[in-house]
Amino acid sequence: MNMDNHLSTSAPIRSKTNLCFWVCAFVVALLAIFLAVHTIPSLCTEGPCDLQEAIVDRLLNRSSLRHLLSVHRRRSHHHHHHRRHDDKRHKPECNSTKWDSKIASEYNAALVFIVDVKGCGNFSHLQDAVNAVPDYSPSRTLILVDSGVYREKVVIAANKTNLIIQGQGYNNTFISWNDTANSTGGTIHSFSVAIFSPNFTAYNISFQNTAGPPSPGMVGAQAVALRIDGDQAAFYGCGFYGAQDTLLDNKGKHYFKECFIEGSIDFIFGNGLSLYEDCTINSIAKEVPRGISGAITAHAKIR
To answer: pTM for the full model?
Structure first.
């Protein structure tokens, strides 16, 4: 091999290697300066720091790094400013005066929870509030539910005794779900809300099943809005919305005062012994040329 050719080819390689080395060194130096800018002021308080700051300033002035740092800081400040602005913009406006309930004092409630879908209460879901009620409590617990549609399936177990739930009016506060007998394996499981506890009371709230009216001859379309199995339950100014089998007044003694009950087929049924006083019963059954398209009750026990 010709030694001259070998030397001529190795020289460019060394040149490129040297170039890469100095580029890397320059980048490392810039990073070191960047870190020094952020760490030196926090570590130094007097004396020797003046010399260090002077060296850093001189290096920054000879490069474009000061400009880059200033741009970075402005953008960072701008970002945090907007994030604080967005947090303030999305924070809900809460009005605590609307939670002044006379029921709390009338029943001498020992515990009061607030449920608000907008985030202004103790809970955003009714089931979470129910779960927080003390088991087998001898005193009353009041749950206040703000206006809105609460899409959830709620079970009030037998150990949640002496519970009161108050909404903001049956046209404003809805507990809503859409199960059917087909989707749950039976009519008694298709409820949106089920109450198994004794001494339950509800004010100004609606229980709704949004499954919709069944077509003629459709099987498994039963859709219960409320199932009540607990004894001595009372409902004041409440709404019950559904189509087939809206209100399952299953067992126990119950009282309904100034309530609105809507459905199409057998929409009040069950073996409960109940009094319905000054209630509105609204049929949404479709008219047919001949025959009967709907019925209020399945057991024909209304007196």
So the answer is: 0.68
